[in-house]
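User: Predict the complex.
Assistant: Input components as received:
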Amino acid sequence: MKGAMSSLLVVGSVAFDTIHNHLGSHTRILGGSATYASLAASQLASVRLVGIVGKDFPKKAVDMFRGRGIDTTGLEVANGDTFHWEGRYSDDLTSRTTIQTDLNVFADFEPKIPESFRDSEFVMLGNIAPELQLHVLDQVRSPRLVIADTMNLWIDTALGALKELLSRIDMLVINEEEARQLSGFHHPLAVAEALRALGPETVIVKRGEYGALLFLDEDIFCAPAYPLKTVADPTGAGDSFAGGFLGYLAQAGHDDLRQAVICGSAAASFCVQDVGIGALENLSREDIEQRIREFRQLTTF
Amino acid sequence: MKGAMSSLLVVGSVAFDTIHNHLGSHTRILGGSATYASLAASQLASVRLVGIVGKDFPKKAVDMFRGRGIDTTGLEVANGDTFHWEGRYSDDLTSRTTIQTDLNVFADFEPKIPESFRDSEFVMLGNIAPELQLHVLDQVRSPRLVIADTMNLWIDTALGALKELLSRIDMLVINEEEARQLSGFHHPLAVAEALRALGPETVIVKRGEYGALLFLDEDIFCAPAYPLKTVADPTGAGDSFAGGFLGYLAQAGHDDLRQAVICGSAAASFCVQDVGIGALENLSREDIEQRIREFRQLTTF
């Protein structure tokens, strides 16, 4: 993991989360898909963050991003409050219910890509409305790799725009349940075949505590999740996976998608070990490299 | 995979299954834990089958076992009918409901280990009442390796006997949901630690379409399931896994548990591709070896 870092544009939500789980209640902690993905990638790539926050967004959070080398030129500060989500996890953390969603300034988010970001080589379109993801694509010049996440809300309410998006991206990274919903199939090869027929050359299916599957042409790679004794908070694990994955690829000279999946899995495994971004804000490149070695020990036969 | 085969004693159910699934209804097809495990192991080890059937059990089924090199000396034929189970799978095959269970001769099963089987080096105690599994252990002399499966029924109704069994076996192979129930934990390391504290040095957690986890001391191995486009019938997959696993170890000179897990996963992947034992009754050692190579391609990074 050496060499010059490439530029990685991350677009998504920057939010406050109030999380109730087996460890207690965690009020208005920093969250959002772009937050997790940016932090996970920050030690690997030159991250350029695009998102929107309100006037209530604390300077110390912006400083934390900057301290991790993240370029916050694209973090728009709008009149109003920052996006706030409140939810409660089941005791085994396998499901969660939303208590309240206050979109606030996020309701009018129209991602504006600063001129200095438009040459980004790698683009991560975090889980926002597919219309907005398309709007980002219209503003970047000629990225080497575009990856997008999505969710059931957009499959249900914006399928047309989502399909247009899928025809324009290189990779889709998606939760297994939503991959099944979007494809109409259950078993992995059928799911991947149907999703790739919609456009993306590569599909990554995120399976939570069961790891991830990578599909590229006839090539399939199965990555486990890192086995843990306890999990503090699964919030942001999928976004951390995407950040670690793209961060790996954005390191100069790396094009091994399998290694990138493992790097993403390593980032996700750190993410869930603490509440919110607790484990990510101090994560080092060495931490990730050590965990990648542990993944090799876990899977070699 | 060369060398003389060691003896593998398989004790469990031999049954007729009536299965309703997305492919239709399959009436009174050959099934049972000992059937699946024996067939999966039969090309790798010298399998000795112990079970009970009724007068209605067809000679051609016995001939099929023998044709696969399985010693049926221990297959008791009792007055009455063979154990019959009828169930219906959900369309995605992730759940099933029992329509009818006719224990028939299985209700009075007391496994009698033929004298010629008592020197068996490897013992698989399929999922039957733990009292009966203990009764088998009392009859074998000094096996090198004893592995047992169990289920929620015995956790609920025979926990004392199950705990005694766990203190006397080398390995527990158990479905993830039941592993969580028995251990009282959710996350894999906590589950394994609690189960190993009950006796077995090694624990294998079967995760269905997500593969298997092997725990031995501090060593953990994550094996994926073989990704498929369609699944015909998951019945017997866990027993095929155990058969392939022990069959691998029973091959002379093999003691690599990781390779054995992959061999079990290969056997299970064939099992689910056809209804009942359809894919197992003609499975060759070469088929398994080829699939093990595919598993390496699936997991290497």
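Residues 7-299 of chain A form a domain with the UDP-N-acetylmuramoyl-L-alanine:D-glutamate ligase fold (CATH 3.40.1190.20).
Let me know if you want any component modeled separately.
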